[in-house]
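Let us practice reading a record.
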Amino acid sequence: MIRCYRSGDERQIVDLWNRACPEEPISMDLFVKRVLVDPNFDADGLLLDEEAGRVVGFALCIVRKLPLSGADLEPDNGWITAFFVDPARRRKGIAKGLFAAAEAFFRQKGRRYVFFSSYAPNYFVPGMDSARYPAGRAFLEQQGFTRLYPCVAMDKNLVDYRIPDDVLQLMEQRQQEGYVFETLTPKFITQVVEFNDRKFNPDWARAVREAIAGGVSLDHVLVAHRDDRVVGFCMYGAYDGVGERFGPFGVDEDLRGTGLGKILLYQCLQEMKARGLHNAWFLWTGETSPAGRLYDRAGFHITRRFDVMRKELQ
Protein backbone atom coordinates (compact mmCIF):
# COMPACT_ATOMS: atom_id res chain seq x y z
CA MET A 1 0.00 0.00 0.00
CA ILE A 2 1.34 3.42 -0.96
CA ARG A 3 0.31 6.14 1.42
CA CYS A 4 1.41 9.57 2.62
CA TYR A 5 3.36 10.41 5.75
CA ARG A 6 1.59 10.29 9.12
CA SER A 7 2.88 11.49 12.46
CA GLY A 8 4.71 8.60 14.09
CA ASP A 9 6.37 7.34 10.87
CA GLU A 10 9.66 9.10 11.62
CA ARG A 11 11.58 6.25 13.28
CA GLN A 12 10.59 3.73 10.63
CA ILE A 13 11.66 6.13 7.87
CA VAL A 14 15.05 6.90 9.41
CA ASP A 15 15.73 3.23 10.15
CA LEU A 16 14.79 2.23 6.60
CA TRP A 17 16.92 5.06 5.19
CA ASN A 18 19.98 3.79 7.05
CA ARG A 19 19.37 0.17 5.99
CA ALA A 20 18.77 1.05 2.37
CA CYS A 21 21.49 3.70 2.02
CA PRO A 22 24.23 2.86 4.57
CA GLU A 23 26.69 5.10 2.71
CA GLU A 24 24.31 8.09 3.10
CA PRO A 25 23.25 7.70 6.76
CA ILE A 26 20.92 10.17 8.36
CA SER A 27 20.22 11.03 12.00
CA MET A 28 16.79 11.79 13.39
CA ASP A 29 17.92 15.37 14.07
CA LEU A 30 18.89 15.86 10.44
CA PHE A 31 15.67 14.25 9.20
CA VAL A 32 13.66 16.67 11.32
CA LYS A 33 15.68 19.67 10.15
CA ARG A 34 15.79 18.93 6.43
CA VAL A 35 12.39 17.30 6.02
CA LEU A 36 9.79 17.89 8.72
CA VAL A 37 10.51 21.58 9.36
CA ASP A 38 11.38 22.46 5.78
CA PRO A 39 8.97 25.31 4.94
CA ASN A 40 8.06 23.50 1.71
CA PHE A 41 7.30 20.15 3.37
CA ASP A 42 3.99 18.62 2.38
CA ALA A 43 2.87 15.39 4.06
CA ASP A 44 1.13 14.41 0.80
CA GLY A 45 4.53 14.50 -0.92
CA LEU A 46 6.29 12.18 1.52
CA LEU A 47 5.26 8.87 -0.04
CA LEU A 48 5.63 5.54 1.75
CA ASP A 49 5.15 1.96 0.61
CA GLU A 50 3.84 -0.04 3.55
CA GLU A 51 3.54 -3.82 3.83
CA ALA A 52 1.88 -5.38 6.87
CA GLY A 53 2.48 -2.23 8.89
CA ARG A 54 6.14 -1.99 7.90
CA VAL A 55 7.52 0.82 5.73
CA VAL A 56 9.56 -0.70 2.88
CA GLY A 57 9.86 2.21 0.44
CA PHE A 58 10.12 5.99 0.52
CA ALA A 59 10.11 8.96 -1.87
CA LEU A 60 10.28 12.61 -0.84
CA CYS A 61 8.58 15.04 -3.24
CA ILE A 62 8.84 18.82 -2.89
CA VAL A 63 7.13 21.82 -4.47
CA ARG A 64 7.67 25.35 -3.27
CA LYS A 65 5.29 26.97 -0.83
CA LEU A 66 7.81 29.63 0.16
CA PRO A 67 10.00 31.37 -2.44
CA LEU A 68 13.75 31.57 -1.98
CA SER A 69 13.59 35.19 -3.06
CA GLY A 70 10.91 37.64 -4.03
CA ALA A 71 7.69 35.96 -5.15
CA ASP A 72 9.13 33.21 -7.37
CA LEU A 73 7.56 29.89 -6.39
CA GLU A 74 9.01 28.15 -9.48
CA PRO A 75 5.54 26.95 -10.50
CA ASP A 76 6.89 24.65 -13.24
CA ASN A 77 9.26 22.72 -10.99
CA GLY A 78 9.12 19.89 -8.49
CA TRP A 79 11.88 17.86 -6.85
CA ILE A 80 12.43 14.33 -5.65
CA THR A 81 15.24 14.72 -3.13
CA ALA A 82 15.51 11.13 -1.87
CA PHE A 83 14.06 7.71 -2.63
CA PHE A 84 14.91 4.19 -1.56
CA VAL A 85 13.53 0.68 -1.04
CA ASP A 86 14.26 -1.91 1.64
CA PRO A 87 17.13 -4.09 0.31
CA ALA A 88 15.06 -7.21 1.01
CA ARG A 89 12.15 -5.92 -1.10
CA ARG A 90 13.91 -4.62 -4.20
CA ARG A 91 12.96 -5.63 -7.76
CA LYS A 92 9.33 -6.08 -6.80
CA GLY A 93 7.93 -2.92 -8.38
CA ILE A 94 7.93 -0.84 -5.20
CA ALA A 95 10.04 2.00 -6.62
CA LYS A 96 7.92 2.10 -9.78
CA GLY A 97 4.79 2.40 -7.68
CA LEU A 98 6.30 5.19 -5.62
CA PHE A 99 7.35 7.13 -8.72
CA ALA A 100 3.90 6.71 -10.27
CA ALA A 101 2.44 8.19 -7.09
CA ALA A 102 5.08 10.94 -7.15
CA GLU A 103 4.21 11.82 -10.72
CA ALA A 104 0.52 12.00 -9.79
CA PHE A 105 1.44 14.35 -6.92
CA PHE A 106 3.39 16.64 -9.24
CA ARG A 107 0.68 16.64 -11.89
CA GLN A 108 -1.90 17.55 -9.28
CA LYS A 109 0.35 20.48 -8.36
CA GLY A 110 0.57 21.55 -12.01
CA ARG A 111 4.29 20.86 -12.42
CA ARG A 112 6.03 20.52 -15.77
CA TYR A 113 9.51 19.39 -14.65
CA VAL A 114 10.66 17.01 -11.93
CA PHE A 115 14.30 17.18 -10.81
CA PHE A 116 16.56 14.78 -8.98
CA SER A 117 17.70 16.40 -6.80
CA SER A 118 18.93 19.97 -7.06
CA TYR A 119 16.43 21.40 -4.58
CA ALA A 120 17.46 24.30 -2.35
CA PRO A 121 17.75 24.66 0.52
CA ASN A 122 17.41 21.15 1.96
CA TYR A 123 18.94 18.74 -0.55
CA PHE A 124 20.84 15.68 0.62
CA VAL A 125 22.97 15.18 -2.49
CA PRO A 126 23.01 17.47 -5.53
CA GLY A 127 22.24 14.68 -8.00
CA MET A 128 22.61 10.99 -8.74
CA ASP A 129 25.96 9.43 -7.86
CA SER A 130 26.11 6.89 -10.68
CA ALA A 131 29.30 5.23 -9.40
CA ARG A 132 27.79 4.58 -5.98
CA TYR A 133 24.25 3.86 -7.16
CA PRO A 134 24.33 2.46 -10.72
CA ALA A 135 20.95 0.76 -10.22
CA GLY A 136 19.45 4.04 -9.04
CA ARG A 137 20.78 5.82 -12.12
CA ALA A 138 19.39 3.11 -14.41
CA PHE A 139 16.03 3.31 -12.64
CA LEU A 140 15.79 7.08 -13.11
CA GLU A 141 16.57 6.70 -16.81
CA GLN A 142 13.86 4.03 -17.09
CA GLN A 143 11.47 6.52 -15.54
CA GLY A 144 12.29 9.09 -18.21
CA PHE A 145 14.88 11.22 -16.40
CA THR A 146 17.82 12.57 -18.39
CA ARG A 147 21.03 14.23 -17.29
CA LEU A 148 20.82 17.99 -17.13
CA TYR A 149 24.41 18.72 -16.03
CA PRO A 150 27.21 17.16 -13.95
CA CYS A 151 28.79 18.43 -10.75
CA VAL A 152 31.42 17.23 -8.31
CA ALA A 153 32.14 17.12 -4.57
CA MET A 154 35.70 17.94 -3.52
CA ASP A 155 37.84 17.59 -0.40
CA LYS A 156 41.20 18.95 0.78
CA ASN A 157 43.37 17.79 3.67
CA LEU A 158 44.70 20.72 5.72
CA VAL A 159 47.31 18.97 7.86
CA ASP A 160 50.26 20.27 5.83
CA TYR A 161 48.53 23.35 4.46
CA ARG A 162 50.11 26.81 4.33
CA ILE A 163 49.36 29.84 2.17
CA PRO A 164 51.76 29.82 -0.80
CA ASP A 165 54.19 32.72 -1.07
CA ASP A 166 52.79 33.84 -4.43
CA VAL A 167 49.33 34.20 -2.90
CA LEU A 168 50.74 36.28 -0.03
CA GLN A 169 52.49 38.49 -2.57
CA LEU A 170 49.28 38.83 -4.59
CA MET A 171 47.34 39.78 -1.45
CA GLU A 172 49.89 42.48 -0.63
CA GLN A 173 49.61 43.84 -4.16
CA ARG A 174 45.80 43.99 -3.99
CA GLN A 175 45.97 45.65 -0.57
CA GLN A 176 48.16 48.36 -2.04
CA GLU A 177 45.40 48.90 -4.63
CA GLY A 178 42.90 49.51 -1.84
CA TYR A 179 41.34 46.09 -1.33
CA VAL A 180 40.76 44.96 2.24
CA PHE A 181 40.53 41.31 3.28
CA GLU A 182 39.09 40.69 6.73
CA THR A 183 36.61 38.66 8.74
CA LEU A 184 33.02 39.80 8.64
CA THR A 185 31.88 42.63 10.91
CA PRO A 186 28.29 43.81 11.51
CA LYS A 187 28.95 46.72 9.16
CA PHE A 188 29.07 44.40 6.14
CA ILE A 189 26.45 41.75 7.03
CA THR A 190 23.63 43.23 4.97
CA GLN A 191 26.00 43.88 2.08
CA VAL A 192 27.15 40.26 2.04
CA VAL A 193 23.55 39.00 2.05
CA GLU A 194 22.52 41.39 -0.72
CA PHE A 195 25.69 40.59 -2.68
CA ASN A 196 24.77 36.91 -2.69
CA ASP A 197 21.14 37.54 -3.62
CA ARG A 198 22.10 39.86 -6.45
CA LYS A 199 25.26 38.29 -7.84
CA PHE A 200 24.78 34.57 -7.16
CA ASN A 201 21.55 33.01 -5.93
CA PRO A 202 19.00 33.46 -3.15
CA ASP A 203 19.97 30.15 -1.53
CA TRP A 204 23.43 31.51 -0.75
CA ALA A 205 21.88 34.63 0.76
CA ARG A 206 19.64 32.37 2.87
CA ALA A 207 22.64 30.27 3.94
CA VAL A 208 24.50 33.37 5.17
CA ARG A 209 21.47 34.73 7.02
CA GLU A 210 20.59 31.44 8.70
CA ALA A 211 24.19 30.64 9.63
CA ILE A 212 24.69 33.97 11.37
CA ALA A 213 21.25 33.84 13.00
CA GLY A 214 22.05 30.29 14.15
CA GLY A 215 25.20 31.37 15.94
CA VAL A 216 27.96 30.75 13.39
CA SER A 217 30.77 33.13 14.33
CA LEU A 218 31.36 36.13 12.11
CA ASP A 219 35.00 34.98 12.10
CA HIS A 220 33.88 32.10 9.86
CA VAL A 221 33.11 34.58 7.07
CA LEU A 222 35.84 36.40 5.12
CA VAL A 223 35.07 39.40 2.94
CA ALA A 224 36.94 41.41 0.35
CA HIS A 225 35.90 45.02 -0.03
CA ARG A 226 37.14 48.21 -1.59
CA ASP A 227 35.85 51.68 -0.77
CA ASP A 228 33.42 49.97 1.63
CA ARG A 229 31.84 47.94 -1.20
CA VAL A 230 31.84 44.16 -0.81
CA VAL A 231 33.28 42.47 -3.91
CA GLY A 232 33.83 38.92 -2.64
CA PHE A 233 33.31 36.60 0.30
CA CYS A 234 33.78 33.04 1.49
CA MET A 235 32.77 31.15 4.61
CA TYR A 236 32.80 27.80 6.33
CA GLY A 237 30.57 26.08 8.86
CA ALA A 238 27.44 27.53 7.27
CA TYR A 239 25.55 24.26 6.81
CA ASP A 240 24.25 22.20 9.74
CA GLY A 241 27.03 23.51 11.96
CA VAL A 242 29.64 21.34 10.21
CA GLY A 243 32.87 23.32 10.58
CA GLU A 244 34.79 21.48 7.87
CA ARG A 245 32.15 22.17 5.23
CA PHE A 246 33.45 24.99 3.03
CA GLY A 247 31.25 27.49 1.24
CA PRO A 248 29.47 29.31 -0.11
CA PHE A 249 32.16 31.35 -1.83
CA GLY A 250 32.14 33.90 -4.65
CA VAL A 251 33.66 37.03 -6.20
CA ASP A 252 31.98 39.72 -8.27
CA GLU A 253 32.11 38.45 -11.85
CA ASP A 254 33.36 41.85 -13.03
CA LEU A 255 36.52 41.32 -10.94
CA ARG A 256 37.28 37.70 -11.78
CA GLY A 257 40.80 37.23 -12.99
CA THR A 258 42.17 39.67 -10.42
CA GLY A 259 43.03 36.92 -7.95
CA LEU A 260 40.56 38.08 -5.29
CA GLY A 261 38.94 34.65 -5.20
CA LYS A 262 42.29 32.93 -4.84
CA ILE A 263 43.22 35.20 -1.93
CA LEU A 264 39.91 34.59 -0.14
CA LEU A 265 40.05 30.83 -0.68
CA TYR A 266 43.62 30.40 0.59
CA GLN A 267 43.06 32.76 3.50
CA CYS A 268 39.88 30.92 4.48
CA LEU A 269 41.66 27.55 4.41
CA GLN A 270 44.32 29.05 6.69
CA GLU A 271 41.61 30.20 9.11
CA MET A 272 40.08 26.73 9.11
CA LYS A 273 43.42 25.09 9.90
CA ALA A 274 44.11 27.64 12.63
CA ARG A 275 40.88 26.54 14.33
CA GLY A 276 42.03 22.92 14.40
CA LEU A 277 40.12 21.64 11.38
CA HIS A 278 41.92 18.91 9.43
CA ASN A 279 39.85 18.96 6.24
CA ALA A 280 37.78 21.20 4.01
CA TRP A 281 35.04 19.82 1.77
CA PHE A 282 31.95 20.81 -0.19
CA LEU A 283 29.28 18.97 -2.16
CA TRP A 284 28.74 20.87 -5.35
CA THR A 285 30.66 22.72 -8.04
CA GLY A 286 31.20 22.43 -11.77
CA GLU A 287 34.42 20.52 -12.44
CA THR A 288 35.42 22.78 -15.34
CA SER A 289 33.95 26.01 -13.96
CA PRO A 290 36.27 28.83 -12.87
CA ALA A 291 35.63 27.83 -9.24
CA GLY A 292 36.32 24.17 -10.02
CA ARG A 293 39.64 25.01 -11.63
CA LEU A 294 40.56 27.23 -8.68
CA TYR A 295 39.82 24.44 -6.23
CA ASP A 296 41.89 22.02 -8.29
CA ARG A 297 44.88 24.37 -8.25
CA ALA A 298 44.46 24.78 -4.48
CA GLY A 299 44.85 21.03 -3.99
CA PHE A 300 41.25 19.92 -3.66
CA HIS A 301 40.53 16.49 -5.14
CA ILE A 302 37.27 15.11 -6.45
CA THR A 303 35.61 12.68 -4.05
CA ARG A 304 32.24 12.16 -5.76
CA ARG A 305 30.55 12.88 -9.08
CA PHE A 306 26.86 13.64 -9.47
CA ASP A 307 24.43 14.16 -12.31
CA VAL A 308 21.52 16.53 -11.83
CA MET A 309 18.63 14.82 -13.65
CA ARG A 310 15.26 16.00 -14.88
CA LYS A 311 12.06 14.61 -16.33
CA GLU A 312 9.54 16.59 -18.33
CA LEU A 313 5.96 15.59 -17.61
CA GLN A 314 3.92 15.30 -20.78
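A brief commentary: The mean pLDDT is 95.
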